[in-house]
Design brief:
heterodimer, A: alpha/beta, two-stranded antiparallel sheet, B: alpha/beta, Rossmann fold, 7-stranded mixed beta sheet, 8 helices, about 35% helix
């Protein structure tokens, strides 16, 4: 039976060495906030790094101090597909984030003020390089697995390409090898919504004691739309009205409008997500294209990857459709890599990777059980039987 | 050693050690697991059914979930990627068996195919005496709900191979219990229930 991990206390890694970024800029020092679940085994072979998506953070499983469950608590914990009785699971907030790792809301040591728009641009590779410092700090020679959904899956791909000997398995879920023009276009509209908000102040809104609430809320509404499927919105809201008849005005008339506004509002105020972080994360997504430095050939890019892969997509995901996962699978097959691929039937669109689903859970659990079987303590237990 | 079906045993006898194998419609991965354990083969399985996919992953098989009626093999694999492309009891369920055969021989040097014989005397007798589509233990479906939409006889299949310029490297004809008799060797298309074919392009 699965139990809860209980309340988790985040930890902080302070890296006092500079990090040279892909853009050429340099971070003189940085903090990484992270959580861990489960125990590292004697030979440090059971460590798993979970990479988060655009608006995610290091709080993946268990409860935080406000009793809020982690964003992947359904899949990570004791007895869950990623079983914390077997694995030591690590997750950090990406650099440039707003949940405790160094980012636009942190103080710039050079000016003594918050970074705001001066925080350097991040890429997936920069995140992977910083996560590699966390790996060293935790005394882990090689991750048993890297796991990530959406933008998290992109970081997993980048790990597999940049540090092939540092991971044994790569679980790439609801991801893409690069953004399409349409993906970038959606990101650009989201950014314009934020940057044209009168409260944006060229990104120095915190110094002006304000936040671009409207812009951030709009950006989130747009983003949220791309996470849902048409079918699912149809079955959840249809054309249902808030009142029992049409009002013929611009107020909230349809339930779907009410829902989207609520999602946007919640994100910008209650969840207090930083607008500069949102801008930066969307840019990092746009920049992601590991094949670019290999003649735009993903097969070549993945030629050096030695990890075994599980790739998962969801049928109604149109943000990163099954076709996009297929591109990753094809490149791995071209390299004769070890790869399994599951195309999970779901009506929940891109969001499906966070939600309960029988097939998804069974695939995830089966693959992770395979990893458990590879652990040294498992083979010892096997001998005792 | 785990028990495997007689059909899988017969197929295994044709596989060379350390070869690269693709199993189309690999089910729960039993055949591939056996070939990996026994002959150290490498390769992949393809399977549409989600439950069977999970079972194959549990066996540590590389399995790609795909519907071959909607995807071409060429979308996944380059030419000559495999020594053997296997398809057991599935030729008759695909939308274009002839095109799939071409695709299989594009990505693999040899194909191993098994299918039920619609020319078996019981089929012929049922059609002759009842005037209705045959139903047997191996093919228990009604004409309207059967997944077997492209039934053929051994002769039909061999005609197709001839048309396509394919060479039948080996053939084994057996009954439903996967045993062979003298009669089957003399009149396979009348007495054989299941055939296993190993085919390749004529060199």
């Amino acid at each position: 039976m699965s139990q809860s991990l209980g309340v988790i206390t985040p930890q902080l890694l302070q890296v006092e060495r500079p990090l040279t970024l892909v853009s050429g800029a340099e971070l003189p020092r940085y903090d990484l906030v992270y959580e861990t679940y489960g125990e590292l085994n004697a030979d440090a072979s059971n460590a798993i790094l979970v990479c988060h998506a655009l608006s995610g953070d290091h709080h993946v499983a268990g409860l935080d101090k406000d009793q809020k469950p982690g964003w992947w608590d359904g899949y990570i914990g004791p007895g869950k597909p990623v079983d914390t009785n077997k694995f030591f699971v690590v997750s950090s907030n990406n650099l440039g984030g707003c949940r405790g790792s160094t980012g636009p809301t942190s103080l710039n040591p050079e000016t003594g003020k918050v970074y705001g728009p001066d925080f350097p641009m991040m890429t997936c590779r920069d995140w992977v390089n910083s996560q590699n410092e966390l790996r060293k700090h935790l005394g882990i020679e090689q991750w048993a697995a890297l796991i990530g959904g959406s933008m998290g899956g992109m970081q997993v791909l980048q790990w597999a390409i940049d540090y092939p000997d540092k991971l044994r398995h790569a679980l790439v879920i609801a991801a893409a090898p690069k953004l399409s023009a349409q993906n970038i276009a959606f990101n650009e509209v989201a950014r314009r919504a934020i940057m044209t908000d009168p409260e944006f102040h060229d990104g120095r809104y915190l110094e002006n004691n304000t936040i671009p609430k409207q812009g951030l809320s709009l950006a989130r509404m747009l983003g949220h739309l791309t996470y849902l499927s048409d079918d699912m919105m149809g079955s959840k809201f249809g054309r249902e009205l808030r009142e029992d008849k049409l009002q013929y005005n611009y107020g909230v008339e349809f339930q779907v409008e009410s829902y989207l506004r609520y999602q946007g509002e919640k994100f910008a105020t209650k969840q207090n997500f930083d607008a500069n972080t949102y801008l930066l994360m969307t840019k990092a997504l746009d920049y992601f294209d590991p094949a670019a430095e290999f003649d735009h050939n993903l097969t070549k890019a993945l030629a050096q990857a030695t990890a075994k892969f599980l790739v998962v997509s969801f049928t109604s995901d149109w943000r990163f459709s099954p076709q996009r996962s297929h591109e990753i699978v094809k490149a791995l097959l071209d390299n004769d890599a070890n790869v399994s691929y599951a195309e999970v039937e779901s009506e929940h669109g891109h969001d499906a990777f966070l939600l309960p689903n029988e097939h998804y859970e069974a695939v995830f659990r089966a693959y992770m059980q395979k990893l458990v079987n590879e652990l040294p303590e498992h083979s010892q237990n096997g001998e005792q039987k | 050693m785990k028990q495997i079906s007689p059909e899988f045993k017969l197929i295994s006898d044709w596989i060379t050690p350390n070869s690269r194998v693709l199993d189309l419609g690999c089910g729960d991965g039993t055949l591939l697991e056996h070939l990996i354990d026994t002959y150290s083969i490498t390769g992949y399985g393809m399977e549409l059914d989600p439950k069977k996919n999970v079972q194959a992953i549990q066996k540590d098989i590389n399995v790609i979930q795909s519907d071959l009626n909607n995807h071409d093999l060429a979308e996944y694999f380059d030419e000559n990627s495999f020594d053997f492309v296997i398809m057991t009891q599935a030729l008759q369920v695909v939308s274009r068996p002839d095109e799939l055969l071409d695709d299989m021989l594009a990505i693999g040097k040899q194909c191993i195919i098994t299918f039920p014989n619609f020319g078996h005397w019981r089929m012929r007798l049922q059609l002759l005496t009842n005037g209705r589509m045959p139903e047997t233990d191996t093919l228990p479906y009604r004409w309207y709900d059967t997944p077997n939409i492209h039934m053929c006889t051994f002769n039909d299949f061999e005609d197709l191979c001839e048309e396509k310029g394919l060479e039948v490297v080996a053939r084994t004809v057996v009954n439903a219990q996967h045993r062979s008799t003298m009669g089957m060797r003399i009149a396979p298309n009348l007495l054989g229930e299941v055939a296993l074919y190993q085919v390749q392009k004529k060199s």
